[in-house]
Design goal:
By secondary structure, this protein is α/β, with parallel strands linked by helices. Helices cover 20% and strands 27% of the residues.
Length: 234
């Protein structure tokens, strides 16, 4: 089965349709699938539901899809770095489902493991729990959260072999493994593709069984909020 494609556009060919559900890896601007996001913008696919920790920043990352009004609903944990996100949400143009960060990651992982739902204490007694099933275990109340099963996963890894075994680099690992797991089809962009068998099995973070298509490319890797120490007085 061919997994390596030449461009993001080629890798997404035949997978996109209006109204689809996409799980996207990344945390802030760290480890986001920049090239695949650009290809989504170019495709014009619309009415998207996207599960991702956040929605990029104004004009970059998933924020580009907000600018083009291609997103109908976001399932996120944090939205504080994007003024356009706030504007669309407050004006009723964008639907938002808030998820505690760990809950969102576990919903993705559960979906990738075929688990339709799980109970958690996170969110009990808050608006997060409204409308959800409550159940007591050993005298403690839990709420039922559903696993995420997406039509498509788009993720960013550091290195892949030709069968799709992935290695993530440091904090860019973040949401990428669970996001990759929960999509019916997973498309990954990487910085390097190496021959099959050249990655030590103990160093593989996500096995290729979850990965269907791979592209290699150069990435801008913007810093979300650059913070530096003031230069000491001479």
């Amino acid at each position: 089965m061919k997994k390596v494609f030449g461009t993001a556009k080629e890798a997404l060919d035949g997978l996109l349709h209006d109204g689809m559900f996409i799980a996207a890896g990344g945390f802030g601007l760290c480890g986001i699938p920049e090239l695949l996001i650009d290809a989504l913008v170019e495709s014009g696919v619309k009415d998207l539901t996207i599960a991702s920790n956040n929605c990029g920043v104004d004009g970059f990352g998933l924020g580009k899809l907000l600018d083009t009004r291609q997103i109908r609903k976001m399932m996120s944990s944090y939205v504080g770095e994007n003024a356009e996100f706030m504007r669309q949400y407050l004006s009723g143009e964008l639907e938002l489902e808030f998820n505690p960060q760990g809950t969102l990651a576990e919903r993705m992982r559960a979906g990738g493991c075929g688990i339709p739902g799980f109970y958690t204490k996170t969110g009990v007694g808050t608006v997060i729990a409204e409308g959800k099933e409550h159940k007591d275990f050993d005298g403690e109340t839990y709420i039922l959260e559903r696993g995420i099963f997406a039509d498509l996963s788009i993720v960013k890894a550091w290195k892949a072999d030709e069968t799709g075994n992935l290695v993530f680099r440091k904090t860019a690992r973040n949401f990428n493994p669970p996001a990759a797991m929960c999509g019916r089809t997973c498309v990954v962009e990487v910085e390097e593709i190496v021959p099959t068998g050249s990655i030590d099995p103990d160093h593989i973070h996500l096995p290729g069984i979850y990965v269907h298509r791979i592209i290699q490319g150069a990435h801008e890797k913007r810093i979300e909020q650059r913070t530096v120490r003031k230069r000491e007085e001479a």
